[in-house]
TrEMBL record:
The keyword Membrane does not apply. This is histidine kinase. Gene3D superfamilies: 1.10.287.130, Histidine kinase-like ATPase, C-terminal domain (3.30.565.10). One of its GO terms (molecular function) is kinase activity. InterPro entries: BphY/WalK/GraS-like, HATPase_C_sf, HATPase_dom, His_kinase_dom, HisK_dim/P_dom, HisK_dim/P_sf. Transmembrane segments: none annotated. Its EC number is 2.7.13.3. CDD domains: HisKA. It comes from Corallococcus praedator. It catalyses: ATP + protein L-histidine = ADP + protein N-phospho-L-histidine. Keywords: ATP-binding, Kinase, Nucleotide-binding, Transferase, Two-component regulatory system. Residues 118-324 form the Histidine kinase domain.
Length: 324
């Protein structure tokens, strides 16, 4: 769990809208220590207009535990969004504050979470029918070479759509991971097999180097395989034909095992460093723009971590760390 989910602050203020009490994790939520907030005006503490501060004060004095949301920039850009629960604390107006950016960090948008499963289901059914029709046509021995090539392209695009639906479904999934002990090399090999036709078209191989006596890892292979498969394919698509995707499995810190994936063709522009694992936040996140975001979701779900190192120059390294 993200530790920031538990971080909140509490403010109280006088009728002239001066803060009389500041408690909790004000340094994180409001970007200023609590000791510096007392005596300051409410609007300056929250980074809002005086008119908006008066509106919040009026809602608080109704004492109905009203919930309000404000866009705030108390310490200057960038702005953040706060959830305020307003009410009376004795004779003082007060509010509890929660930083929505911290709460939602790494979590899917509500719309994706709610719609992904039903949307995937609705699209999978007709897609399966199309897939069966294409495979039936491909068995016709009287096809011309041109028609065979067309059906090969159709099959490839169908597989692409299936992976995109997997990523959409995985990114929005809310259920707990089904953890078990597995050899990490086997999981990588199974993920590779899922994109074997695409790799074969470009004559690209996945080269796995494994450290001796590597312990098993705790993972949900059913959730990791399709996401890792898309990431491997992303790397492969940046390589020349007959290239090799390099994967290294080794012992990390005590009780941890790392999967290190080299991407020699990818670069990480400075403006994308903060959004690399956000949905649609990076040009590297091919496959509906969700491959890296879904990978982080899966790794978080199994108690692991994913990190990336790179610069504006080609050459990136992804590191997935699992509990042994």
């Amino acid at each position: 769990m993200n530790a920031q989910l538990l971080q909140a602050a509490q403010l109280a203020w006088s009728p002239n809208l001066r803060v009389t009490r500041a408690e909790g994790d004000c340094a994180t939520v409001l970007r200023r220590p609590a000791s510096t907030l007392v005596g300051s005006s409410l609007h300056s503490v929250l980074g809002i207009t005086q008119e908006r501060a008066r509106e919040l004060d009026a809602r608080a004095r109704e004492d109905r535990r009203a919930v309000e949301f404000v866009s705030t920039s108390p310490g200057g850009p960038p702005a953040t969004y706060l959830r305020l629960v307003l009410g009376m604390d004795g004779e003082e107006a007060s509010c509890g504050l929660l930083d929505l950016g911290a709460v939602l960090e790494g979590a899917p948008p509500v719309q994706i979470s709610r719609l992904s499963s039903s949307l995937s289901h609705e699209i999978r059914n007709p897609l399966s029918s199309v897939k069966m029709a294409v495979q039936t046509l491909a068995r016709n021995t009287g096809l011309s070479d041109r028609d065979k090539r067309r059906l090969t392209i159709a099959n490839r695009e169908i597989r692409t759509m299936e992976r995109m639906l997997w990523l959409l479904s995985e990114y929005g999934r809310e259920g707990a991971a089904n953890l078990d002990s597995h050899p990490l090399r086997s999981v990588v090999q199974e993920a590779t097999a899922m994109v074997a036709p695409e790799l074969a078209e470009r004559r690209i191989e996945v080269d796995v180097k494994e450290e001796a006596d590597l312990p098993r890892v705790r993972v949900d292979p059913n959730r990791l395989r399709p996401v890792l498969a898309q990431v491997l394919l992303n790397v492969a698509m940046g390589l020349p034909e007959e290239g090799r995707v390099q994967v290294t499995l080794r012992q990390a810190a005590p009780g941890q095992v790392s999967l290190i994936l080299d991407d020699p063709a990818a670069a990480l522009p400075p403006e994308e460093k903060g959004t690399l694992f956000d949905p649609f936040g990076s040009r590297l996140a091919r496959g509906a723009g969700l491959s890296l975001a879904a990978l982080r979701r899966v790794m978080t779900g199994v108690g692991g971590e994913v990190a990336a190192e790179g610069s504006a120059e080609p050459g990136m390294v992804f590191t997935l760390t699992f509990a042994a």
